[in-house]
Amino acid sequence: MTVSVPPLAIAPSESGRRGNLAGGSLETSLSAREVAQAWESFAAGEDIETGVRPEILASWYRCRDRYEVDRTLDVAPGARGDDVQRLDNGVIFTTLGGLGALAGREVEQDGAVVTVADGDGRVLGAWGDPSARRRAELHNLAPWSSWSEQCTGTNGMGTSLEVSGPVTVTGPEHWCEAFHRWSCAGISIRDVVTGSPVASINISRWNAALSELVPAWLTKAAACVEQEIYRRAIYEADKVISEFNRKCDQVADPFLAMDRGGNVIAANDEAVSLLGLTPESGISPGATEPAKRWTPDISGLPEVVRWAKERAQGPARWSGYACLPVSPGEDATPVTLRPVLDSDHVVGMLCLFGVREGEPYEERAEAAVGPLPRRIVGIRNERLVLLAPSEIRYAEADRNIVWLNTERGRIQAATRGLDNIERSLLSCGFSRVHRRFLVNLRRVAELERGIKGELFLIMDPRSHESVPVSRRQAPELRRMLGI
After folding, report:
1. Where is each PAS domain found (predicted)?
2. Assigned CATH class of 376-481
């Protein structure tokens, strides 16, 4: 069913003419002055917890401590020219560009600019009030400029690529001081298979606030475009299942099919048994719905899938293999990956266990670990909570949201994705014991066995707080704990 995107209005309907700015000048509002004072303190190197919206403060931490964005930057850098899109995105950007052009016509009288960017923050198109566009171009808010957080700091487009849902950035909430006279709102469009952003749409206005209705319009617009991504994901799954079924009778070993994100779409009986899947999983006949796919708990598999996707680009037939710890307590098993292609694009992988075929995978040397983060940032009750790694007992993933269980209670991480939290805590004594759990090994108090031999870590004996250990991670965990 097609989502109907309502008309967009960013100023009260009674404004009647350009220049009658809703909400008044951004410089004169009390809240803007308070945020500006917080920005001054934070930019000078202080750590703050209040006075700024949590999502903005989390962005400031990324800009200052991770990306080291120059806050005096006044012009966005140019974007690289190579095409790195991860989907067959022609139809997606046609749809998004159409929405951008429509919105640009509707907000022209209100002095606003509508921009569309790709998943790397590279601006692809701009529409709206000609005078506002000329002013925006002074900051290089124009096609082929880069507005990712990493390049240009906190802004509607870049920050929306870091989080889910609509993002508003008003006045001094921007990380770069030169943009403090702008207000903007953006939303990312995400790949339903990998969860990564593929595009963003943003509305910017000079020296005036945006209407409270803008985030709702952006949500509708994103849903309209994501329908095309969902349709594409179902089409890709059908192609992968068809190829899997065609090869299945020729294979006696464990054999499964995965989507581009490394999630299992279909598996033969031998693979179901090897991976411990249940008959109720729905994987055997094929899981076309993205939400029903299953992520294998095999250490190193995501990295191997990413490697295979990079190596398999193009029309040449390719296959490769890696040796991975598939079964606990046993030697690593060879796993061969064969890409499933559609118009020379990788749409999935066929995975054969116990087979060595094609190019061998060589594990990449990890980059040297930089300075530990000053704090792990969490959000609770509209406030930012700064946590030392030692305060965290374990992290638990609920899809892309991560919950930190700490001495100060259960706190949502400001960073999304357990993989991202794991990278931040790599050198702090944390270990992934389950696809949903990351534990602080220094905080493990007791070990407990379940009635079926399952292993649980008791993190807090007082409350009997426990974390399950996957059977594949149990041998390595025992080695790390010396038991």
Report:
1. 249-281
2. mainly beta
